[in-house]
Amino acid sequence: DTEVTQTPKHLVMGMTNKKSLKCEQHMGHRAMYWYKQKAKKPPELMFVYSYEKLSINESVPSRFSPECPNSSLLNLHLHALQPEDSALYLCASSQDRQGGGYNSPLHFGNGTRLTVT
Amino acid sequence: SQKIEQNSEALNIQEGKTATLTCNYTNYSPAYLQWYRQDPGRGPVFLLLIRENEKEKRKERLKVTFDTTLKQSLFHITASQPADSATYLCAPPTGRRALTFGSGTRLQVQP
Question: Which among A56, A98, A111 is the nearest to B43, CB-wise?
Fold first, then answer.
């Protein structure tokens, strides 16, 4: 079991649907991340929140909309996705935001397996 | 551009042997590097961090080296066990960004 909880574990959605992925951590971490992972590929960074403010957006299409309601929660809102967006979506947290001299390890959840039909 | 390379071919070794995985980086000099383990269908799990001023770091059967001249990190698992079978990812930060993961090396330990 991990200390980062992601729900749901699996999600199937049509291209016209709106859905949300949720992530929660109670380790007091102040940085939270969304990564996308396709089969047999490494995780790719999508967004970083630091102290509840969006600090990195890796040029992610606007059909993905992140939200950080408080320091423990991270959401990813999905709308009008394409089949190629099907992937494992991983949430992670760390004590401080990485880069800029911070080297805190990432704590990952086990992801949401998303299938877009 | 900054590149991180791991051997994409799977590494197959016999139980009890030492596994050595390689991570090479080019066009930059990270201040540190992290190694993660990932099992199928699960998120990566942090294993070790090594800083640029550390030549070597150990944790139980794991050892990581960091050669800033060769721009390479080696990850060793001694006395390997079938339970060590997984994909191992090296992850240096790129600039002021968050971690960037290498493509990973799949390790298979045969009993």
Answer: A111
